[in-house]
Amino acid sequence: MTEAPNTLTQRLDEKIAQGMSEERELLKALRDLLIKQDFDDQVIDQVAGLTGHLEELFLLVVVGEVKAGKSTFINSLLNAEVCKVGAIPTTDKIHVLKYGDVEKERIIEEFLIEKHLPFEPLRNINIVDTPGTNSIVKRHGEITESFIPRCDLILFTTSVDRPFSQTEREFLGYIVEGWAKKIIFVITKKDIKEPHELVEINDFVTDSVKKFFDFEPQIFMVSAKQARKAKETRDDALYEESGFKALEQFLFEKLSVGEKLQLKLESPINSAMTICDRASESFTARMAHLKDDKRVLENIKGQLEQSESDMSENFGRFILEIDNIILEMEKRGRNWVDDNVKLTNMGMLKSAERFRGRFKEEVIKDYETKIDDTLNKAVDWFMKKYLKVWQDTTQYFSDQAALRPHEGMVGKVGTKFEYNREKIYDLVRADAKDKIKGFDYEDQMRRFMGRAATGINTAIGGSLIGVGAGAAVVALTTAAGFTWIDVTGILAGLTLLGGSMLVLPMQRRKIKAEFSNKITELKAALANVLEEQIKKEAREAVEKIRESFGPFFDYVNRTTGSVEESIRKVKEIRDGFQQLKLKFGMTLAEEKDALAIKDTREHRKLPEPEASMTHETSEPPAETPAEESTESTGEDP
Which CA distances in Å does 615 have to 265, 621, 631? Predict the structure, then answer.
């Protein structure tokens, strides 16, 4: 019959190979995403390490405190003096132990060494010996933690003289809460305690793990000293007493090929999913920062819109002041007409030029200065307001920048992200301050007044070039009263009527009425042009302020879109890892079932028929099921 496939069959290999190919693609997509989003190099290296680990042997990492007996334990496990042992801490470097036909050592970096040893147990497994979890050398911890994400199994060592210390608990929390690795607890130095003490220590460690991490620990109590002696003297009883027999049977026998394969396949997936979760948490934290940034932007926009409205509306009081000046000028003009359009002034009334000359001299003379003074005061107020808005906006922006980084948030969002964000803040803030410092107040005043005069002149039909706003208004006021009104026609009428007493009151009323009408039109036109001009000036002033914060506006909008897309992408990648984990689990479960069926059939298989059993009517044994008898390989009679 055709045998059920075993773990190394082509069918399984093809499925695993296909799954590992998918895993590489997912890891590449994750790495590319982290690079694009400026994650720290350590995180990116972790993903790269997971990719490389797919091609490596089963990785066993031994961790524990200084003097917890890790080195002695590894020497006993391999039955060789592989690691230094001494009264003081001797493991000052991380050692990666691999199989090699010849013993040799290669320095990877200052605190990381790769050792090749000709020991059979290393043919199918790599072992990492680490310094203590409470080592004072910071780089030790960094490298140790870099191996945790890509290891397949962790042996967590603690000694009977200091079981499950505070630093061990903290490091275990890093493993359990961060990387979801399979952990085997090894309590060393059992030979220095009495049996009843060992029971208490075992219970203490078990209860502590349950209390703090909510899982049932698998614990082995060992004595490396007893194990080495037992192996040297071939004392089986002492070897069993040392606890190493049970541990080695678990590592090299009970931990089946299938279980090791499952750990090997799922370990990088679990680590990658953890990195995805942390990336997602980082993106969420970044969105919280960007939400704050958007709030700053919205506040700036709101402040600028309100300032634009305030500048336009408050400028109205100056328009009203100019309006009152013109009303005062109108009143004086009407009074002047009453006082001067008389028979006693016939000499002046007969000459339109003299009439206008006296009107300008006696009525309008000082109003040009008044209007210009008011406009200067208005523009001065506007420029101060404009500059203050710019300064206040920049100060608000600086105050918000000073609140960065948020307490406890830099580690979540990533130092590169925070650096880039702070850089944008600094550049925008510095640029705004430079522009404020270089603000030429007098030049801006002159430019504003020039635009105002041009606007007034153009809007109310003037043709005066290069004169001030006040001069333009006064000139147009004179024209309003005595060009649009036919003064010479009125004077001609007076001459024809021979200076009739009845004509003068009528002509005065007509002159004043038409003069007032034209002044009313002039005021309306002037108010309209000034309102439009100030709205335009306010709009352009605010736009200049807004432009100075443009890079920050662009950064926030661009980064928000990018982070939102990354949140979607990292979820998609994590879901891919989750599906792949399920696929691997189903494949290995199917293989386990196939092996179980194979083992059952081999166990129940009948012995081959003897050569003498050739009678045609021979029947299979009664207790053998018919379906199995059809699988007999006996010869035909």
Answer: 54, 14, 19
Reduced to 3 states (helix: H, G, I; strand: E, B; else coil), residue 273 is: helix
Query: Is there a contact between 579 and 19 (Cβ–Cβ < 8 Å)?
Result: no
Structural domain count, the chain: 2
With respect to residue 488, please indicate whether it lies within any of the assigned structural domains. Answer: yes
Contact yes or no for 585/301 (Cβ under 8 A)? no
- The pLDDT of 567-582, averaged and rounded, is 95
DSSP H or E segment with residue 188 = strand 183-188
Average pLDDT for 82-104: 72
pTM: 0.66
Amino acid identity for residue 22 in this structure: E
pLDDT band at 474 (very low <50, low <70, confident <90, very high): low
| Bridge partners, residue 112, by sequence | 94, 109
Which is it for strands 218-221 and 153-159: parallel, antiparallel or unpaired? unpaired
Nearest to 455 by CA among 521, 531, 373: 531
CATH code: domain of residue 170: 3.40.50.300
Instruction: Pick the more confident residue, 157 or 466.
Output: 157
Distances (CA, A) of 205 to 156, 162, 182: 12, 11, 17
Report the largest interatomic distance among the alpha carbons of the chain, rounded to a whole angstrom: 170
Q: Which domain holds residue 234?
A: 58-255
Q: Is the same domain home to 223 and 141? A: yes
Last residue of a domain, one of 510, 530, 548: 548
Q: Partners of 156 in the beta sheet?
A: 63, 185
* Contacts with 151 (C-beta within 8 Å, 6 or more apart), sequence order: 59, 60, 61, 128, 181, 267
Calpha distance 84→357 (Å, rounded): 115
Rounded Cα distance, 343 and 153, in Å: 121
Pairing of strands 94-99, 104-109: unpaired
